[in-house]
Amino acid sequence: MPREITDRGRVVEAVQNLTLTAELFEEQNGKQKYGTDLEVIVQGREYGSGKRVGPYVRLLAYDSGEDIMRQGEWGGNTFYIAVEGVLDVYVREGGKGGEGGGRKRIGRLEPNACFGEMALLAGVERNATISVPDGQTAVVLEISRPALRLLRKLPQFGHTIDETYRAHGFGRVLEDLSLISDKPVSQALAEELRRTARYMVYGKNHVLCKEGDPIDRLILIKSGWVRRARGVPFHATAPEVVMGIDETIGVDFLGGGNCLGLEAVHHSESWKYNASLLARTEVLEVPLATFSSDPELRKQLAATFSAFSNADDSLPLTIDSVPDLNVLKSAEQEITTGIIDGANVLVMDMDLCVRCGNCSLACHKMHGQSRLLRRGIQIERPVAIGRKRLQHALVPQVCMHCADPECMTGCPTGSIFRAPLGQIDIDATTCIGCYDCATQCPYDAISMVPRQAPPANGGFVSKLRKAFSFRVDPVVTPELGDDVVAIKCNLCEETPLNPPGARRKAYSCEENCPTGALVRVDPLEYFSEIGTTQGLVFKDKTHAIGRNIHKSDPLARAWHLGGVLLTILIAVATVWGLVRNGFDGVLAGTWLTMRWLTGLVGLFGVAIVMTYPLRKQVYRRRAGALRYWMLAHVYVGAIAGIVLLFHSGPRTGGLLTTLLYIAFDVVIASGVIGIVTYYVAPRIMTRIEGEPLLVEDLQERRAELQKRSDEILEESQGWLKDEIRDRVYPRFFARGFLWRQLTKRESLKTMLAQAREEFKERLTRLATDEERALLISAVETAVTMRRVDALLLLHRSLRVWIPAHVISTALMLALMIVHIVQVVFFRVN
User: Where in 191-322 does DSSP place strands (E)?
Assistant: First the structure.
């Protein structure tokens, strides 16, 4: 373990003597130019109310053979500068990710050398192990991420860190080249690449090449996203370029591991497309002119770089060659919104989501404040390449644990950090509530809440009211004072849901979704239309990813298959037993009759069915995914229902027994209605709602539209008022128009166009522009309000069956207890 040198004088001396940080002590007009930054970095600063930033450096002493950092670890929080002693650089035998305990030394670092910045700046694992040589000691300066934005002000530091980053990035590319090539990269080629190639980092919208220009360099995409377009000079920032595809215009997208310009290695060629960047991108640029005089090196260059990917071999796709335009559209949206660059993304399949809000409630129960809101980025994508059916996926406002997180970059105290498994977390004890992370997160995934959460209120009546309300997301909006803290999804780390030694990760939202609509995924694997654009060596396995149950859920399939077979088997066995033995015939070797046997089996089934409500109350520990409990609830309930129906025979008996069976029938009927509703309503909803909306949003929107419709009537005069009141509103507020929303499932844009067409003749006859505008506004307001009414109706249908199901179940259980007491009493007597 390293020993921290706490002598502040020695820390200051180390910072002052290092080439990279010496500029902190630069003076201007007799005063320290960076005095404030120096204080924060070395000593830290108090800002009152217990809020403190810094210090951002630690001076650490290491003994012989100790590792300072290890290859494969996530190190997005710190980097280092060697102060005293030399350090050895090792990589695993077999390259990146190689198995086995062997390692080889590839270099040595002298004092003033910077290392570890690649993992911090690129959001990747450490690509080497740095150790103290045997028999020696070393001192290093550990620098936390928040110091970067202060140190970058220093010209020497900024230049050196960029050059070091490029050098290490180039080294990583050479390492990848050695992995994919049939033969090791020759020494001559490696030396020529080191001499001439440039490792560059470009920002979004940078243009890599232009159609028609000579190809003067080979471009290897290390990370990021490139859009290629040919046939038209699309501007680099143009949105929805895919919509412009036709017979002559082609567009496609390429990710890391692809190579551009390879066709010009052997003979002169021109770029056949424009290539612009859709995100921060790192590339290796190899000038081709330097290889023109050496045919052997040219041959090696072509052979080595052609092994990266096949996706870059063809030209951008035109409408004639694209296999599925919807795939290309969804790929563009996934890249431009940035969700594909998340390391761990929560995806909701809205066709499965029943808007119950249990995911948000589970998050609230787990953390005290819900960190999940069912709003966010909606993606329409084919369920599979070549399939016409679309999946409506929602990526909600939940932390994606980005590879290059803006929140972590801007945190002044370092309280936002990358944990050992790679996830981004917040240390509440050092968070000063500055709001920087919340304002910088592009996905609104970070919330500010009081450090001391308000006490819970409300008893049984309040809970019952919430259970039957239409509120689906427990949104907490407390009064914010000065003492606030940032919260966000931390993948349920440090919670009872993920105890030490657990074999797999579990997430409260996913575990408590009754339909399997939620899943935590690696976006490159989940969005298969994107995965095909990635090169061979850059498809790294990310951390803490769950199984993609939207693509394949073997356990759910087993439940369905086993449930159906067991239901049929028990039904056939019950009929066979009744035919052979009757209701009261004693079964061989026992005291049981078929009436007793069916009653006991049905009672046991009901007991199992009633475990589902108990499981729904378990949020803070593992109890099996709720979606499997739901399947058990359905199939065991079906078995219990069939057996108990046979149990009664042709006559139910007395009044209490008759009431018991009536209650039982209501339970079964309401449950069947619930299953059908859960299957049908979400699928209709996703096709007509456009952007997913909470029921609160719909209610507020309807109130706004109602107010606007009243205002339109007040503003209109004479015959126009009669027209709106007697023709427009009755036409679109009618029940038939409401049902049309649910049956035809037209887009709102289409319905508005058709509605305006119905009143086209009236519009042409109107005398003034003001009257025309008022009539159009009346039509559009009425149609939109009816669309909102349809969505509210679907929301209510998802819950309207629940009161009948719960009440009839309670009545059935009470009557069943009475029935059991009667049977036992008469049996004993």
Answer: 198-202, 207-209, 217-223, 226-230, 250-254, 259-260, 274-277, 281-287
Q: Classify 124 in phi/psi space as left (phi over 0), alpha (psi -120 to 50) or beta.
A: beta
DSSP state letter for 389? P
The greatest distance separating any two alpha carbons of the chain, rounded to the nearest whole angstrom, comes to 109
Of 266, 272, 260, the C-alpha closest to 302 is: 266
pLDDT at 415 over 60: yes
- Tell me which residue has tokens 């935590």: 520
Q: Which of 288-302, 564-578, 727-741, 754-768 shows the lowest per-residue confidence on average (mean pLDDT)?
A: 754-768
Is the pLDDT at 171 greater than 90, yes or no? no
- pLDDT tens per residue, range 604-617: 999 999 999 999 99
Amino acid at 542: T
Using an 8 Å Cβ cutoff, are 433 and 654 in contact? no
Report which residue type is found at 20: L
What span, in angstroms and rounded, lies between the C-alpha atoms of 107 and 115? 12
Distant-in-sequence, close-in-space partners of 503: CB < 8 Å, separation ≥ 6? none
User: What are the structure tokens assigned to 353, written together?
Assistant: 């989501």
Q: What are the residues facing 45 on neighbouring strands? A: 53
Cα separation values, 231 from 65, 262, 358, 717, Å: 60, 20, 49, 54
- pLDDT of residue 243 exceeding 80, the answer is no
Q: Would you say residue 245 has pLDDT above 80?
A: no
Query: How confident is the model over 544-556, as a mean pLDDT?
Result: 80
Comparing CA positions, the residue from 256, 241, 248 lying closest to residue 331 is 241
Pairing of strands 281-287, 250-254: unpaired
Q: For strand 87-92 and strand 198-202, is the pairing parallel, antiparallel, or unpaired?
A: unpaired
Label residue 651 exposed, middle or buried (CB < 10 Å: 0-12, 13-18, 19+). exposed
* Residue 300: per-residue pLDDT: 87
Q: Is 495 exposed, middle or buried (0-12, 13-18, 19+ CB in 10 A)?
A: middle
Across the beta sheet with 250-254, what order do the strands follow? 207-209, 274-277, 226-230, 250-254
DSSP state of 85: S
Query: What percent of the chain shows pLDDT beyond 70?
Result: 90
DSSP conformation class of 145: G
Residue range 48-107, pLDDT digits in tens: 666 788 899 999 999 999 999 998 888 778 999 999 999 999 988 754 444 445 788 888
380-397: average pLDDT = 84
316/392 Cα distance (integer angstroms): 27
* pLDDT band at residue 546 under the 50/70/90 scheme: low
**Residue 554 carries which side chain, given as an amino acid letter?**
P
Q: The pTM is what?
A: 0.85
Residue pair 312/254 in contact (Cβ under 8 Å)? The answer is yes
Cα–Cα–Cα angle for 207, 213, 216, nearest 5°? Answer: 85
Which of 340, 321, 216, 347 lies closest to 278, judged by CA? 340
The counts of H helices and E strands in the chain are 28, 29
Query: What pLDDT is attached to residue 720?
Result: 87
Alpha-carbon torsion angle 253, 258, 264, 265, nearest 10:
180
* Residue type, position 560, single letter: H
Q: What is the CA radius of gyration of the chain?
A: 33
Cα dihedral across residues 503, 509, 510, 514: positive or negative: positive
DSSP conformation class of 184: P
Please state, in angstroms and as integers, the Cα–Cα distance from residue 758 to each residue in 24, 222, 282, following that order: 73, 56, 55
**Short-list 115, 130, 123, 114, CA closest to 76:** 123
Burial 754-773 (b: 16+ CB within 10 A, else e): ebeeebeebeeebeeeebbe
Distance CA 754, CA 731 (A): 13
Alpha-carbon distance 4 to 432, whole Å?
A: 25
Who's near 291: CB < 8 A, 6+ residues apart?
A: 192, 265, 297, 298, 301
- Within 10 Å of residue 250's Cβ, how many Cβ atoms? 24
* pLDDT of res. 534: 64
